[in-house]
């Protein structure tokens, strides 16, 4: 039986260095976002109540009973908070730990399929392209790790004498990815395609395939058993929070998905690697059988993303990004070796240039981070804790607050409702913004560009003028602006106290 692959000391040092470079200003860049707080809220609610539920929606849609999203990441986050306490730093630190393991398994997959050189360059390219995502509290990161572990075990099982148990655990990790988010199941499908390409029609009669499928089914079955009593609640939540995402019987659903898929790949740091992958496919087409595993995974994700996933965020591409990075590494290392050979460059000179480029790639993203914190936003202005303290000056403890989700973590002593609760109640009961505020007995409203962007409600301004008092305002070009937009208003966060004397 093969042992654990030997990792050279210099490669471990590089991977550790990449991990440490993810840590500076961890709570500042990227700006905290509403999706992060959804997970943090669910994890913390699990710690406090034992339920995988949310606090920021109250009893709306029974969100205080169960959360419709697959549970694994929120459960993991809750256990992490139990050990280290609640905080954005703690949440993002867990992501850095997981991201470090992602880079490690990217290296191991590159090594087992090709060699150490491709493995380590792939990890470095992945660090470059997903630097921000590797500091972001979302389920895409643990999903990517679980699939990578499953895929690595699949590759290793094909070589080991105790392969059958490894095939089972390969499936188990792919199953765990599937209950982190539904699109995690694409990873298991890509491995099944590799089985079918090997065994053809005999695939599902092979013991190793059966063990793999059993591993996939096990965690999904446990989740289904847990979910069954709440099916009505979860179905209602999905129809409100994710309308149209499972409209699989509509032809328009597929046409719209295919037409919009290019949106996913327009994330700037990812574009060079998508371009590299296209060149890789063209140049290595005749040798495609040598790269069956990489090509199968990437094309399985791209095709199923295009057909079935109507949320076109680039964040979902985290699970397939390591394989794109491996393909990019193969391309550029091959071209560099051919270039060096044609110019008759000495090995020493060629390696010096190569390592110089690698060092520049490594330092670019953290250098850009420092620029944004020190110069673009400012050291004081990009401090979330200071910003939340400024908000709390105007809002007493134990009061009922409505605001965007990103601020939830700053109000542990309040009843804090996130603004999408208003959207949920609009969709459920056709209520106006003002009616929701009255129904939920909101006492303070935090109005910033994120709330205005998502609400787009003409009822907000008249209600605030007539029924509230402006008690404070904070101007901050990082936190007052909706990340990625920041153009709706003037970059000022305003705190209103709702009047009850009219």
Describe the structure.
- By secondary structure, this protein is mostly helical.
- The protein has 20 helices and five strands.
- The protein has two domains: 9-367, no CATH class; 384-498, no CATH class.
- It has helices at 9-20, 34-49, 72-84, 88-113, 116-129, 140-157, 163-178, 185-199, 207-227, 231-241, 251-260, 271-283, 292-308, 321-342, 347-376, 384-392, 420-429, 433-439, 449-455, 460-467; strands spanning 400-403, 415-418, 444-447, 468-475, 492-498.
- The radius of gyration is 25 Å and the shape is globular.
- The protein starts with 8 loop residues before the first helix and ends with a strand.
Descriptors for this entry?
2 domains, five-stranded mixed beta sheet, 5 strands, 502 residues, mainly alpha
Produce a short descriptive summary.
With 502 residues, the chain is mainly alpha-helical. Helix content is 59%, strand content 5%. It has two domains: 9-367, no CATH class; 384-498, no CATH class.
- Describe the global form: globular
Radius of gyration: 25 Å
Q: What class do helices, strands and sheet pairing give? A: mainly alpha
Biggest sheet, spatial arrangement of strands: 2-1-3-5-4
- How many domains? 2
What is the overall number of helices?
20
The share of residues in helices is 55-70%
Uncertain stretches of 5 or more adjacent residues: 484-488
